[in-house]
Amino acid sequence: MALPLPQGGVVPAYETFILDNAAPLAFTHVINALTGQVVLRYNEVDYAGEPKWEQFPAYPGLDYSSTDTRETWCWEPAPDCERVIAQDPGATPVAWDVDPTKGPTTHTTLGNNARSYENWDDADPFSVGREPAQRRPQRDYQYPWTNQWYEQGCSPDVYRSDAENDIDAATSNLFAGHNQMHDWSYRLGFTETTWNAQVSNFERGEDDSDPEQGNAQAGARVGVRDNANQITPPDGQAGSLPLLQGRLARPRRTRPAARPSNSRAVMDSPRASSGSSCSCRHAAWPPRSSWPTSSRCRSAPSTAISSTSAPQACRSTVSVAMGAATAWSGATGPA
């Protein structure tokens, strides 16, 4: 074929078409016959737009701020992208939101490497949720995040609100984090032949059908808090990671001049209210049997106290459902 040049004239060229139905992948290339340079490359698979995710690169800031500091991650370069996902045909032959056993794209948090769900109502660490993030026909996984759990004083009403405790943002963040860790660890040698986690191994060896399953805000509505764990069955059986919401204590900004040796600085929670679901505790260390059992939060004193008075001090809570991948467990919640 003759390839027209922008500056005028033509050069001889080859046109190639490459198809892989198993992936699925299909590309048309136009190659300069004189130099061997790939001049044009078309993706022939109709994905209704290339996917992009709104993602915390590690975790939100530790200042309890509700400022959205997420980055836009894109599968292919685009003007509004802050990070383009490293394309590695070895690690991920298909985009993160593609299940090669079912079709071009799932339009949600289901893919070959990871599947992520909401799992509010089950405290069993071996359970797996059923509801992925809301479908996005244009593959723009940029769900709103409002820090609702913190902003509303850890009220259980967030699960019944329109924002639903930012669950779609949490699920999508966990999904992208798991995929990021999959691709990074693949380059370190955690591949199909060393029993990694994938729906399809693309006939590269060992067993299929074992993607990483992520549970966002696991057990949140039944009161499970402050934990995450990784279930790792044998190759061919899907592992899972329940990621819980967490309570983190905010230290008092001013420290008293002196305090008894058997007491410690109290933690206060300016946002906590009598109707919130934070967990309360004494500000000193009395016997566990004398700890209060009420889940309601009360005002903390302005000075340090001893174990003889032991009023209650409530720890403020924030959501750690926005999972970001770590090398150790696959994902962790931010502060």
Any chance you could write out the topology, listing elements then pairs?
Elements: E1 2-4, E2 10-20, E3 25-32, E4 38-43, E5 52-55, E6 71-74, E7 83-84, E8 114-118, E9 140-141, H1 148-151, H2 167-187, E10 212-216, E11 240-243, E12 246-247, E13 280-282, E14 312-314, E15 317-318
Parallel strand pairs: 5-9, 6-7, 8-10, 10-11
Antiparallel strand pairs: 1-2, 2-3, 3-4, 5-6, 12-15, 13-14
Summarize the structure in words.
This protein has 335 residues and is mostly beta strands. The chain folds into 2 domains: 2-43, no CATH class; 50-248 and 316-335, Elastase, domain 1 (Roll), CATH 3.10.170.10. Helix content is 7%, strand content 19%. It has helices spanning 148-151, 167-187, and strands at 2-4, 10-20, 25-32, 38-43, 52-55, 71-74, 83-84, 114-118, 140-141, 212-216, 240-243, 246-247, 280-282, 312-314, 317-318. Mean pLDDT is 76; it is low at 251-335.
Short descriptors:
335 residues, mainly beta, 2 domains, four-stranded antiparallel sheet, four-stranded mixed sheet, 19% strand, disordered C terminus
Question: What is the count of helical runs?
Answer: 2
Task: Output the structural class.
Answer: mainly beta
Mean pLDDT: 76
Low-confidence stretches: 251-335
Oligomer: single chain
How many strands, what sense, and barrel or not for the largest sheet? 4 strands, antiparallel
Q: Identify the CATH class of the largest domain.
A: Alpha Beta
CATH architecture of the largest domain: Roll
Order of helices and strands: EEEEEEEEEHHEEEEEE
Beta-strand segment tally = 15
State the share of residues found in helices, binned by percent.
under 10%
Q: What is the CA-CA span between the terminal residues?
A: 58 Å
Please list the strands of the largest sheet in the order they lie side by side: 1-2-3-4
Rg for CA atoms: 25 Å
